[in-house]
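note to self: the first set is below, dont mix up w the second
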Amino acid sequence: MKTDYPNGDDLAALLTSAGFDSATVTAMDTDTAIEAAIEGWERAIGRTMLASPVDSTHWYSPPTIGNVLPIDDVVSITSVVYQPFGGTAQTLVAGTDYHTEPANASARRAPITALRLRRSWQAPIDHSLQLSIGVTGRHGAGSTLPADVWQAMLCEGALLLWPQLTQRATSGLLGWKEGDVAEDYGVETWKRLKDAWSDTSAQAQRRYMRVVL
């Protein structure tokens, strides 16, 4: 488990461990690459993996089919309020006015993704009720970053740099022969490395994809 996202130095370490020389890696903008990789990876799975260290409030409209309100991932809830526009805020009490789902999320090291409310609303809701439920807490999927997610983000960053890495390492030359002298830059070896990085990223994305029913 990691307490922060990977950075440019972490990405550089992955590339050098894969066999790219330090001069090639130093010439890469690894900071920007890993930032873009993290943003793209989280966008693809529909969630922010690492929760903010401070509380923030997200607002939702009441559910009109059933009483389950899907919410953005949150690892801890400080308060839930119900405040129709122009009305007085009502603090909802956990265990009385609502339950969090999935059950026992914290024990399972999983984020809270929904509230099961002890009241219901009929469609169409009045405009004064839109965005009337505020959930305050630490939003995100977890307080730490799983090791497989950390590795997947690094692999995604390496894939973003792949064209530059291969160009610098080979100067565009994939093979050369003159008389009895020949050089081959190992196209299959390059492909296996790229495929391994792609597989690592894709498998982790499937494991952590947010599914909203």
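second set (the one i keep forgetting abt)
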Amino acid sequence: MDLTQLELCKKSPLLGTDGLTSTSANFLANKAKEMYDSMEREVKSITFLHKDYKVIDKETVRVDANADEKIFELIKGNLNKIGKLKAFIAWLREGIKLKDETMQFINGYSLTDYIKNVANIQPIQQPYPESIDEDAIRKELGYEKLQRSLELEAMAASIGQYIHKNGSISRARQEFNDMLNKTVVTGQGTETTFITYRAAVDSEVIEKNYMELQELQRKYQAELNGIHHEIELKILDAKREISLKYQEAYREYSKQLNEHQQAYKDWVREQSKTISELKIVIPESLKEIYGIVKDA
């Protein structure tokens, strides 16, 4: 953020060492508005017509217009004065606004802006933590281990989908245990059907092979978890290294900023004092109306 706003304020014809404070300017602007409001109401209420009211069997009653040929002299005078008052108010408001905006600018001017634009020192760059490329870390494991992890993941998932709950092998095993040597009767009368369930495979064979599949799936998953854990440890190490690097860079950044802190505070204080002491200058063209408002 450059210093344009500050320089514009200091060089503006609106402000100078002699003139009105913001408080006085605001008071006079409000006073001037009250004055032209009154004049505008007067101009807006002008009528050029008499109104004759006639009721049957009664005399005509006239409500006179409030204007005659001489009214335009008053109107022109009022309109001229209204214009001067509005110009006076606009000038004061611009001066107040410029001072307020510049004070906000100074208060919002950062230490890094000061270092760059006032102290004319190479800007100090704030450090930011680097991002972690987890995909790159996985590839550091090597082609064989990467391929092995993909194979293990596929194998564990392939077996799991059959032996886990609702898997086809798990359901067939459950059905075998629930229905072996049982008879189910369906239908009625001549349509009665007896369904008896007999073992096609020895129960010990089913259990033995089911347990072997469970163990094989656990084995694949355990090996896969080991590779994932190895990756997680590498990621944690990388994050730790980045964090330490960032902390060191930030300490150095803070140290450099602190070296300019006091000079920066002094500059802000000095500029704030300079701007706050500026007055709103009354130009020659508005001095007459200024005197009228001030003395009203």
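remember for set 2: The two ends are 44 Å apart (CA to CA).
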